[in-house]
Amino acid sequence: MKDTRNADDQRRQFLNWLAASPLFALTLGQEAYADDPKELLRNVSKRPDPMIWTPTTPLDLINNPKEAINVFDFEPVAFTKVPPAHFGYMASGIDDEVTLRANRTSFLKYQLRPRRLRDVSKIDMSVSLFGTKWKTPIIIAPTGGNKAYDPEGEIAVARAARKGGFLNVLSNAGASTIEDVIAARQGEVWFQLYATSSVEVAKKVIQRVERAGAPVLEITIDRNGGRNQETFAHLKKLDPRNCVGCHTHGFGSPTERPNYDGIDMTGVKSMQSSNMTWDFIQQVRDVSKMKIILKGILTQEDAQLALKYGVDGIHVSNHGGRSEDGGRGAIECLPEVAQVARGKIPILFDSGIRRGSDIFKAMALGASAVCVGRPYLWGLGAFGQPGVERVMEILQTEFSGIMQQMGAANIAAIEPSMVMKAS
How far is C-alpha 372 from the geometric centre of its chain's CA atoms? Predict the structure, then answer.
């Protein structure tokens, strides 16, 4: 028997958020809330074609991961369970959040051109990255502080990655150590680095990660300045807790990031890397044999420099709209980077992936693999490890289905001609 009181509390909490949310502007109107189907039809002055028979409202929350139809089902549940400040930090873009929205709407600028009469009775989604074969190009992206959404945090995510066979990338801002995450994953884990203002500290973190067994280092290059996270600021005001109770040394301090444990941080003037230049890549080469990927490349010019400086991979990403509010969706940046780097080094992509068709479009436009961020955090916040598992399962199922519809039996069959820019 369902706990109706808990469900009512969840709905009330969500309605409070929804009233101030841009999502409210996207709902279907009051007709969507009619209890009587006849009344719903009676209220429509001109019937749309096609008719909307299942108006989606965020009020009917799923009770377990198996009930989820798509990844969006997890977000409102996570909102009711995760503290407002923590949810706000994850959901926030910066400034007007133009880029945050563009990461989704820009996918609509690209349309698919399916090919017919091809044998797609068996679908092979496997890809190879730096000598390791993965059953899918869908990667669990690095995201910070997962324990803000579930007590097990990155460990729950790593176990979900192990169960589903997904590549897992641990963030330098994670709340678990690289050693513990590798043990939980029981397999290959990549590491994403925020270099800070100190090259020496960065080198020590890199050496620790390499000793732990991580074969690939992703260096984030787009977090080099301040940011105004308005959604975070607004939701933080709704959180009754005292932040100092958890963030005793300040939000985002090294003490909250255990991969800095044992490293002298006295020379760090800033946790940002605003002093990083291309010379830093060579300095990393001098201390590590790990493969190096640059995360945050958005232009043809920087892709050319990345090749010049001998990086092993490029990650096209605008940090999910969390670094700058330039207005371009990440998928719009992918073609110009791919024009330079495709076929020479692997190209990873993230920012805005929510559907299997999004994954297909990114692969057709030049990505070697795609990374998923916020959706699995919704799953983590809503239901812990099972939520992460279900989010990744849904995306993989959708991607397999769209490969069949497009006539692509394997990754090599996904061609640039299968996607076109809408006029």
Answer: 4
Task: Please give the span between the terminal C-alpha atoms of the chain, in angstroms, as a whole number.
Answer: 52
Give CA–CA dist 204/202, Å, rounded. 5
124: left (phi over 0), alpha (psi -120 to 50) or beta: beta
Give CA–CA dist 386/121, Å, rounded. Answer: 29
In sequence order, which residues have a C-beta less than 8 Å from that of residue 78 and are 6 or more positions away?
87, 149, 377, 378, 379, 380, 381, 382
What radius of gyration, in Å, describes the C-alpha atoms of the chain?
A: 22
pLDDT tens, residue by residue, 116-151:
999 999 999 999 999 999 999 999 999 999 999 999
**Angle formed by the axes of helices 74-81 and 4-19, to 10°?**
100
User: What is the tens place of the pLDDT at every residue in 370-382?
Assistant: 999 999 999 999 9
User: What angle separates helix 356-364 from helix 330-341, to the nearest 10 degrees?
Assistant: 30
Q: Which residues are catalytic?
A: 319
Q: What domains sit in the chain, N to C, each tagged with a CATH number?
A: 1-59 (no CATH), 108-416 (3.20.20.70)
Give the list of residues 6+ apart from residue 1 with CB closer than 8 angstroms, or none.
none
Element (H, E) at 348: strand 347-349
